[in-house]
Amino acid sequence: MEKKKAKKTAHVGDAARAGAGADAPWGWLTNRGVVPTFSLISLFGLLVRAAVSLHPYSGAGTPPKYGDFEAQRHWMEITVNLPARDWYVNGTLNDLAYWGLDYPPLTAYQSYVHGLFLKLFDPDAVALFASRGYETYFSKLLMRWTVLSSDVMVFFPAVFYFWIVYNRGRSRGGERCDAAWHVAMLLINPCLILIDHGHFQYNCISLGLTVGAVAAVLSQKDLIACALFSLALNHKQMSAYFAPAFFSHLLGKCLRRKNPFFEVSRLGLVVMGTFAVVWLPYLYSTDALLQVLSRLAPFERGIYEDYVANFWCATSVLIKWKRLFLTPKLKLFSFIMTVSTCLPSMIHQMSSPSSQGFLYGLLNSSLPFYLFSFQVHEKSILLPLLPASLLALDNPSLYKWLTHYGLLSMFPLLHRDGLLLPYITLNALYFLLYHVPRDKRVSKVTGSSAAYPILSAFSVCCYFGLHLIYLTMHPPEKYPFLFEALIMIFCFFHFALLAIYTNKKQWTLSKHSMLLNKEKKLI
């Protein structure tokens, strides 16, 4: 009788949870199935991207060099009109001082394909020399379409792959609603949308390839993961922010198999094979190879530019790094600090690799790179934001804070681009989507200290206060970039705290799993 009652209670509980899922804000959507759910959220994400793309972009109407929009268009011009061997070589037909290619060959191939698309519909947009500063309405429309198509062809499928792998087994109503919320967080990331579809870049390609590689690792397809991550590295060298996590996790897995040497060799061959295919046009001579490599590491620009919220820029208020030390010394300092802050996470994954530990490892390698590596841009915060978004379902508050501070750290850049309206709108949209009711098990704030609510409220006040100060007040003539510096220091402080928290969180994962194993043995 007692067993029957227990079963009946369990069935009632399951039915209640299923009903709750159907009545939840996402319930009307998730009841239609996986593909319709993803398709509808994707369509909404595309509409948001299209709306943002109607606004200005980096360097709009500001000769002589304009901005990132012109850089991307110029690379299409160069790749369509010159042979691959000349793309990275300075000459009469390719002036590297004017937006010379400084990304790996896969970016050049992408520019070539997009350049053919522009040439088909508007040949003047990629005419050699004559197209510099070309900004007709039709050409801008075509350029925006290349970014949208990149999202649809690379980033969206990669997110779908990850979503299927990560949410496998979530069948109850409430869990399906959580999964729908998760895909909304992944596809409607305000920082990525503002940079790619506002400012104008193609981060969706390298980040999409990285998401695909992460999904492959989680589904135990390590060879595919190596190929995809190698492609990400060959699209943007900043993908190296994730390299310590991939290396340590895959090595940790290999060391636990019967023949570690064979397993490592297989992965190494895939990586070398992928690189060889991508770099094939430049393997004919050592000089050609070194010429491309020299373009990928612009050390002459200094350890930082503008007001990026990392260690070097934030501490330069007190320590004038560029005046006190030459570039070789700064490169060494940067290397030591970046590697040393990545090491704890790497050791964790080499000693006890796990799927959840790997996701935290991605965050705990990309954040130190952002905070301590050489030549970091404001836009590089997109890299730590990626693993934070992958972890959004399990640690939503982490993703929330990193997104808010990431947006604030890029605010001066986006304001200069004339993107204030989409910035405010996407901030509000993100706030609304984030706070849609979800399963209580994953929506509670990760704050154990009693002081957390007070500190959180103070931080929020500062967050809005800095926006208001920047928009309504003029800085002193003696310190024209005072407000940018305040935003930078404020964001750096929070990024550093989040880095400490996420490292601690990663190491507590292994303790938690050990406790679970002990409990299983006792049972």
From TrEMBL:
Pathway the protein takes part in: Protein modification; protein glycosylation
Main localization (coarse): endoplasmic reticulum
Segments forming a coiled coil: none
Record's GO cellular component terms: endoplasmic reticulum membrane
E.C. code: 2.4.1.-
Transmembrane segments annotated in the record for this chain: 141-164, 179-195, 207-232, 267-284, 419-437, 449-473, 479-501
UniProt superkingdom: Eukaryota
A UniProt-annotated Pfam family: Alg6_Alg8
InterPro entries assigned to the protein according to its UniProt record, in alphabetical order: Glyco_trans_ALG6/ALG8
N-terminal signal peptide: none
Keyword Glycosyltransferase in annotation: yes
Enzyme class: transferase
Keywords linked to the UniProt accession: Endoplasmic reticulum, Glycosyltransferase, Membrane, Transferase, Transmembrane, Transmembrane helix
Similarity comment: family membership: Belongs to the ALG6/ALG8 glucosyltransferase family.
PANTHER family according to UniProt: DOLICHYL GLYCOSYLTRANSFERASE, DOLICHYL PYROPHOSPHATE MAN9GLCNAC2 ALPHA-1,3-GLUCOSYLTRANSFERASE
Protein name per Swiss-Prot or TrEMBL: Alpha-1,3-glucosyltransferase
Organism from which the protein derives: Eucalyptus globulus
